[in-house]
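Render this sequence as a predicted structure.
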Amino acid sequence: SDGAVRKLAIVLKRWACAPALSLHALQLRIAARGARLTAPGGTLVYSTCSLNPVENEAVVAQLLKEFGGSLALVDVSSQLPQLRRRPGLATWRVWHRAKWHDTWASMVDRFPRKCPRFETLFPPTAAEAAAMHLERCLRLFPQDNDSGGFFVAVFEKVADHAPDAGALAPEDAQEVCVVEGAAILPEALTRIADGAAEGAAAA
């Protein structure tokens, strides 16, 4: 991820906008699954080794929208005072097909017939961003702490969520599994398990 560009030069050479656009949906699904499993009064931490707002603040904003008032960003500015951090972003643009887009409407205008499903990639309105307190997110730049780059958002589950909050649409109704730190879909997990069983049988 782009948070590792300081220590891995090859990451910078291979960097492109497109991977973040595809990762956004998966990361949102993982975060939503975590939010659904978090009990009221509990804490959920969403963190990436990326500095791209499409993978970070865009996920946080959409998560807060989907879960209504049941989730709230926690102000952790007083914790770890020696850790240098920068506030979360409230505005950003989305790059697609060699052009920057400031709003979802501009992308719809550009692709009226077959617009990609990128609506959740765009920033909320100024009023929504202020109410969400996106500035409470933490952006950790490599040069600030002599480390890799990271993004951290801490949520509190302040109430029960609505039954359909964060639920997958029928066309996306595949569960997300996390195995040894890697997020994969069940069919991939099945192939891995089948392969391991075949290998064991052959041995």
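Summary. Residues 178-183 have pLDDT under 50 and may be disordered. The helical segments are 9-14, 18-37, 57-66, 104-110, 126-132, 142-145, 186-202.
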